[in-house]
Amino acid sequence: MPPPLGTYLALSPELGVFFAAVGGHTRPSISLVSPASMLRALITLALVCLLQPAFADERAQTQQQLDATRQDITELKKLLGKLQEEKSGVQKDLRGTETEMGKLEKQVQELQKELKKYVRQTDKS
């Protein structure tokens, strides 16, 4: 049952007045939130709204850094590919050189054998 008319003026500041749905008259209502809490909430909301552009700038800067990093990674992959191709070429050349060295060693061994034969033949004569 609502309090008698005129008593809502003497109530504490937490009480407010609202329009009732039935009959259109006013009566006191107990507020669930104190004015100080609402003020803190309003200040917090205002700060969040004011800081949004700063967060957006940070996001844009972070996105730019990510894009630059992706570009660097792409360039490094290309460089790595070129280095691997060069390495393959050098390894191929090395195998060719080793093959040639093997052939030359065989030729040296054959020439030494021939030289020994020649020396033996000259010693016998």
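That was protein one. Protein two is written in the same sequence-then-structure order:
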Amino acid sequence: MNEKYKPEYVASKIPLDQHEYQGWFWHMATKKFYRWNDLPHRKEGIMNELISDDLENLINKVKETTCPKCESAEVGFFFPNEIFNCNECQHEWTGTSPSNKGAG
């Protein structure tokens, strides 16, 4: 097999001047060239960033929550059921009615 390798270029639906960077960019996993905004890892990176932000917001929400029954700050959270659980008194409640630290 002495055939010369011919790389594949994936056509973009976005005009070249609307890409963040111009030119062709190699994507190792697919072994293809893409325009910048079409690179598969950019889409994955954007999704991971959104998931990371959601997770950080959830962690902060749990940290700020106290048990509505005993006011303990030792609170856990069960995902995907979205149920809070107090580690002190074992009280369970949904995220719609938690008490917050410092709330009267």
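The two ends are 77 Å apart (CA to CA). Keep this in mind for the problem set.
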